[in-house]
Amino acid sequence: MKNADQFVFQTKTDQERAAEQLLQAARSAAIRFIGLGRKTSGRIEDHLQQAGYEPDTIRQVLQDLKNDQYIDDERIARRQVRSRSGAKSESTVRLAQRLAQGGVDEEAVQAALQDVPDDRTAAREALAARFGRQLNQASNQQLDQQLDQNAIQQLDHRVDQQMAQRLEQRKISMKMQRFLANRGFSAEITRETIRDFWKGYFDNDDDN
To answer: What is the pTM of this model?
Structure first.
């Protein structure tokens, strides 16, 4: 049996106690910032940096909060990816940029992008959702009426209905091009998607 002289009591130094208090203060600040909602690790990191905490303290707090499930970047990323469907579909590059700018860490970004279709599929879905119903409901006569009347007056009176339709198709194609480019799709995929869209549209029209 050990006598009392053999027991060594380990006491924390003032520096160690101060470090623990600082860590707890940073954790409390992060939890208050999170509140009842969900915040990405990047947003929390920015908040703690602005509050004046050191990088080592921030890294430790972020890891602790991830372990305790206060932070779940992947969940946030998957929810955002699901919201960008249909007419809101974007390229994988644009989605990755959106998530990164929102403070989602790289690992969560890559995990969430596994759920999205490839860019060609996403571009087709976006174009069909944005323009498909509009054009399918329009007859050739309605398309003619959409043509700017000033432009018609400037054309030779011998221009026929087919030329007017081609002019309107070109105008809509330019809108499609801007629409897909704004969602981050490459020029090659944009050209292919618009070409295939019109091919499918006129094929369907021939069937009616």
So the answer is: 0.73
